[in-house]
Amino acid sequence: MFRVTGGTQGKERLVAEGKAQPVYRRIADELRAAILDGSYRPGDQLPGENQLMETYKVARATARQGLSVLINEGLAVPRAGAGVFVREFRPVIRDGIARLGASTWPAGRDIWSADAASRDLQVDQVEVGRAQAPDHVRALLGLDDSATEVIRRSRRFVLDDKPVLMSVSWLPAAVAGATQIEQPDTGPGGTYARLAEAGHAPDKFREDLRARMPLADEAERLQLPPGTPVVEITRTAYTADGTPVEVNEMTADAGSYVFRYEFAAG
Amino acid sequence: MFRVTGGTQGKERLVAEGKAQPVYRRIADELRAAILDGSYRPGDQLPGENQLMETYKVARATARQGLSVLINEGLAVPRAGAGVFVREFRPVIRDGIARLGASTWPAGRDIWSADAASRDLQVDQVEVGRAQAPDHVRALLGLDDSATEVIRRSRRFVLDDKPVLMSVSWLPAAVAGATQIEQPDTGPGGTYARLAEAGHAPDKFREDLRARMPLADEAERLQLPPGTPVVEITRTAYTADGTPVEVNEMTADAGSYVFRYEFAAG
DNA sequence: TAGTGGTCTAGACCACGAA
DNA sequence: TCGTGGTCTAGACCACTAA
Fold first, then answer.
1. Reduced to 3 states, what is the DSSP secondary structure of residue B65?
2. A80 touches strand D (CB under 7 A)
3. Could you list the residue range(s) of the whole structural domain that residue A42 is in?
C-alpha cells in the first residue's frame, strides 16, 4: 500500500464486533459511560483532544468529533484554552400555578435542589414602548386589522450573573395604553395589578411550552454552551369574559429551569 | 508563500469587517437567514457540501461545519445519500389539564396546526412487571426501605409511524399489586380507573418538565435527527389524602409536541 | 510559557439514496 | 450509476487560559 493520506481503514475489527461502530462513537460511548457511572463528576475535567489522540491512536479531528458528541448531548462543556468539563446542572423550579398554597401539597422531597430563594435574580435589558403586533401575537390577542397597536415590554432575567430567560410581553394599546404598563417600572403588583385597576383583571391563563435548540443570537444573549436547548413559553392571559389581554413570549435556558404544573383531577 | 497545507488565513477580510467571524459561521448565517426569510421552505433541499465548497472556496470540512451549525440548531436535517433539508415542524398539542372543558375557553386560533385527531397513534414496546424502584422514584413515592417493590409499566408511543414518546410508570406494589395494572392491558379507563376501584383514586397531579438533549440511545429509540431536544416529564399522582400512588416518567420528542397548561388566577 | 480548544486545508474511502 | 453525506488522516496556525 502506498496510500499517503487517510481514508477509512480498519473496518475488519468493527465488522468482527458484529456492529459497525465508528471510532468517534466508541470514544463518545466510553466517555459517556464514565460520566454516567460517576467516574467523572460534574465540574471534572475530561481527557482532551490531545490525550484522546494518544489513547485511541486517532487523528485530531476524530478525537474532536468524539468530544463533540458529548458536547452536543449537553453532558460536557468546552472551555477554550482550558479543557472540556462535565456539565453541572442546578436548575430553578418555576411554578406555573402559584395560587396553590404549598400547604395543600405533600412535602414530597424534590429531585432538584431547589435553593431558588438564596439566589440573586436581576432584571436586565428592559425595553418598553409601542409597537405593531407580529402576526401570531395579533391572532392570539384577537386583534382585527384596525387595532394592531400594542404595548411591548421586553426584558432579560439574570440569575447569579447568568442570563436565564428572555421575556417579551404584548398588550393591546386599547387595554394597557395610558397606564403604568407603558413605563419600565409598572409599580407594586406589576402588570397584572395595573390591568386589574383598569378593569381588565386576568382570570385565566394558558401556557404553551415547546423545546428547541436556540438560534445563534439566542445562544449568545443567554450565554448558552452548545448542547443546551431553550424552552419557549407562550403565555396568554384572559379576563373573566374570555378576552385576551396579554401575550407573553418567554425563551428560557433549559439548563436553568424545571417547569412545574400542579392541578386537580376532573 | 510556499505553505503547502492549511492553517488559517484571510483574517484580513474578517478584521476589516470589524468582527472576526469564522468562515463556517458566515456560511451558517447566510443559510439561516435564507431559511428564516422563506427563501428555503420546510422540506426544501439546501445546498450540499460540494456546492458550498465551490461557492465559498473552502475545504470540505469547513462547508460541513457550516451545515452542522444549522443541523445542531434544528433548522436543517441531513439525510445520508440524499442531501440536507429544511426541517418541518408539525407538533401535536398535549393538554396537561384535560378536565377543563374546551367550551370554557375562548376559541383563540392556534399557532400550531393541531390536527391531532386525524393522526394515527400506536402503542409499542410494552413492558409490564415487578421491579425495584430507582432511588429518585422511591423518594417521590415516599417508599421506605421495607417496601420498595413496584409495578413498572414501560411503553412507547408512535404517531404516524414516528416514535414520539417513551413512558415509564411506577406504582407501589402495595397499591397496585394484584390488580389489572399488572397486566399489559389495564382495561377500560386505564390505570387510573383501576386505582379508583382499589380505593386509591388519583386526585391531584404534579408535572415537572425539563428539556435537554437526548443521549445516544434515546435519540435512537425516538429516531431523533440531530438538533432535536427531548422534554422529560415527571408526573406524580396523589390521592385526596396526599399519598403518592404513581410516578410516570415520560421522554418526549420535542419536535413532536407542544405542552399546554391552562389554569385560573388565584 | 505550555497546553487547550477553535479553525482550516487537502486529500481519501465508504455506504446509501435517487434516478 | 452518480451524487450525497459519513468517517477519517495528517498536518497547520491561532487565541485563549492557567500556572
1. helix
2. yes
3. 11-86
Cβ of residue A193 closer than 8 Å to a chain B Cβ: no
Interface check A6 vs B, CB under 8 A: no
For the stretch A124-147, pLDDT in tens is 899 999 999 999 999 999 998 888
CB of A225 lies under 7 Å from some atom of strand C:
no
Say if A263 is an interface residue toward chain B (CB within 8 Å). yes
For B26, counting Cβ atoms within 10 Å of its Cβ (0-12 exposed, 13-18 middle, 19+ buried), the class is middle
Q: What is the CA A14 to C1' C3 distance in angstroms?
A: 33
Determine which of B213, B222, B250, B253 to mutate to test the interface with A (most A C-beta atoms within 10 Å): B213
Beta-ladder partners of A260: A95, B208
Burial class for A262, CB neighbours closer than 10 Å (0-12, 13-18, 19+)? buried
Q: In terms of domains, do B60 and B102 share one?
A: no
Beta bridge partners of B230: B212, B253
> Is residue A265, in this structure, part of any structural domain at all?
no
The DSSP annotation for A108-151 comes to ---SS---GGGS-EEEEEEEEEEEEPPHHHHHHHT--TT--EEE
DSSP type of residue B226: T
- Asked if residue A68 is part of any domain, the answer here is yes
* pLDDT tens digits, B221-257: 999 999 999 999 999 999 999 999 999 999 999 999 9
Query: Model pTM greater than 0.70?
Result: yes
How far is B171 from B243, CA to CA, in rounded Å?
12
Place of cell 458528541: A69
**Residues of chain A with C-beta less than 8 angstroms from the C-beta of B230:** 211
